[in-house]
Amino acid sequence: MVWLVWMLFGIQVLCSCTAAPAAQGAGAALLSPRCDEAAVEEAADLALRQVNADRQEGYVLSLYRIVSAREQPQEITGSVFYLILDVVDTECHVRSKKLWKNCNTRPAHSTVYGQCKAIIYINQARNIAHLNTYECTLQPVPRRYIWSVCPDCPADDSPDKPEYMGAAVQSLAKFNAESEQTHYFSVLNVTRASMQWVIGPAYFVEFLIQETSCSKDDTVADISMCEPLPPEIAKIGFCKGSVVNSRVEQFVTISCEIYSQQDPATEEENQEAHQTPGKSKQDQEASPSDANPFSPHLEKTVGWVKILPPSNEDITFHSLRESQNEHKDRKSVPPEAVGSAHSSDGEKTQANKPGLTKPVTGPVILPFPEEPSLSDSCPGEAKQAEGILHPLITRKPTH
C-alpha cells in the first residue's frame, strides 16, 4: 500500500515537471519592466519610428511619455513589448520620412495629442525589430485651453473649405514662379488650415504638392490642367503658405520642402527608423543579410490612426484610450488577410513590405493586455515638463 502511494506521488511529480515547460512558454506571463528602463525606452523609440514610417498621411508623431510597458520573453530569444505611449504630433509630414527626434513639436495653439498602443518584437540576436500592430487615437487640444494661453491664436479649421484650397493655390503660384525646379507643381491636398483676422482675413495653410508634366520652360495659364508625373518619378513636396488680405494689397508667403524619390538624407533617416538596437550602422552594413530589421515570416504590420474632431471638453489620455477600445473589432482581422489597412480618417498603412527574409520561427503574439504595467515607475516622466499638455496628462482619470 505504501509502495502504491509513493508510485502515485511520483507520477504526479513527473506530470507536473513535464507540463512545466509548456506553462513557462512564451506568453505564459507578462513582465512589468520599469518605464525608464533602457530596453523599454529603446522599444518605445523603435515602435514610434516604425509607426511613422508605416504611414502615408498625417504628421510625424513624437513621444511625450511611456504610459505602460509589458514584456513577453520569447522561447526563440527576444521579447515582445506591449506599449502604451502618449504622443504629440510635430511639424514634419510623414512623407518627409524624418525621425521623430529630428522634428519640432507644434506650438500650443495647434497641438494635437493622443495615445498609441503598439506591439513590437525585438530580437537583438537575429537583428530584428518588427512592429506587429499599432492603433493611435489623436485629439486637438480643447479650444478653451488654447484661448487661456493665447486668446488671439487661430484654432485649426477644416482644411476642406474652398478658401483654404484657394490660399494654397495662390501661395504655390509664388513657389512655382520663384523656385528652380524644372517642372511646375500642383496642390495635392491641404493637410492643415487656420484663419485669423490681422489687417484683414488671413489664411494659413499646410499642404502637399506633386510634380507635374508641365515644364517651366513653357507658359502655363492653369496649373490644374497639368497632368501629374508617374508616382515612381514624381517629386512630392510639403509647403507652408499664407495669404493675408488688406484693403489695399495682398501679402503671400510660401516655404516648401521637396522630397525626391531617392533623396540620400531621406533614405538614411528611413534606414535609421528601422535600425535594430545594439547594432551600429557599420555592423548592419557589414552583414547585409541581417541588415533588414523586418522579416516576412513575421506578421505584416497592421495599424490605424484616428483623429477625433475638435472639442471644448477636457479630453484626457484616459478618455482617448476609451475611444481606442471602440475599435477593438479591427483587431480581429488577421494580418495575413489584410493587404493594406485603412484608418478611419482615410489614412492608408502599407502592410506589404518587399525584399524581406523570414526567421525560422516567429514570435508568439498575444492580444493586447487589458491590464497596464504593474511597475510603480509607470507612467514614465514626460519628455516635455511644461506646456499646455501638462495639465491634461497629469489629471487623474475619472471613472
Automatic annotation (TrEMBL):
Gene3D superfamilies: 3.10.450.10. GO terms for molecular function: cysteine-type endopeptidase inhibitor activity; metalloendopeptidase inhibitor activity. InterPro entries: Cystatin_dom, Cystatin_Fetuin_B, Cystatin_sf, Kininogen_Fetuin_HRG, Prot_inh_fetuin_CS. PROSITE patterns: CYSTATIN_FETUIN_B, FETUIN_1. GO terms for cellular component: extracellular space. Residues 24-137, 148-257 form the Cystatin fetuin-B-type domain. Its main location: secreted. GO terms for biological process: binding of sperm to zona pellucida; regulation of macromolecule metabolic process. This is Cystatin fetuin-B-type domain-containing protein. Residues 273-292 have a biased composition (Polar residues). The keyword Cell membrane does not apply. Keywords: Disulfide bond, Glycoprotein, Repeat, Secreted, Signal. It is found in: Secreted. Residues 1-19 form the signal peptide. The keyword Glycoprotein applies. Residues 322-333 have a biased composition (Basic and acidic residues). Residues 263-296, 322-399 are annotated as: Disordered.
